[in-house]
Write a structure and sequence with these properties.
three-stranded antiparallel β-sheet; 11% helix; mainly beta; 46% strand; single chain; 1 helix; six-stranded mixed β-sheet
Length: 149
């Protein structure tokens, strides 16, 4: 029994040091509520995104309306100026973990594999992710600090 408890404590400590919830703010969600943002690999706030590697961005949210078509829009905000970041698959209903139509009042997680290109500058910035409905309005919007290194 003592060995089982020790193994549990070790696994818990490893999990706590390899994954840290990302601090975020809602930046204008109209029909949804963001309940969590997680970036892997990330152990600090702000998250450090390493050039030449991929980051996995997971945003958990619920929406008050059914949405059949969702589009992901990503910006880096540098000195209060939004700079578009290319999203490999802007259709948020494809290869993202979402099943569309998204049902109202059900918690879902959108997952984005984001390549951090070596041509990106080394910089601190805010990242703004919007999931937009068919009419272009923000179903959800989350903004969080990051740095590219």
């Amino acid at each position: 029994m003592a060995l089982t408890a020790q193994v549990f404590v070790i696994i818990t400590l490893v999990a706590m040091t390899t994954c840290k919830p990302t601090i975020f703010k809602d930046c204008g969600s109209k029909f949804g509520k963001v309940t969590g943002v997680d970036i892997e690999p990330c152990t600090t706030n702000p998250c450090t995104l390493e050039k030449g590697k991929n980051a996995t961005l997971k945003v958990t949210f619920s929406t008050s309306v059914a949405e059949a078509k969702l589009t992901a829009v990503l910006h880096g905000i540098i000195a209060h100026v939004p700079i578009p970041f290319p999203v490999p698959q802007p259709d948020a209903c494809t290869a993202s973990g979402l099943t569309c139509p998204v049902k109202p009042n059900v918690s879902v997680t959108y997952t984005l594999q984001l390549p951090i290109k070596t041509i990106y500058p080394t910089i601190k910035l805010a990242i703004k992710l919007e999931i937009q409905g068919a009419d272009g309005s923000d179903v959800i919007c989350a903004q969080f600090p990051a740095q590219i290194a």
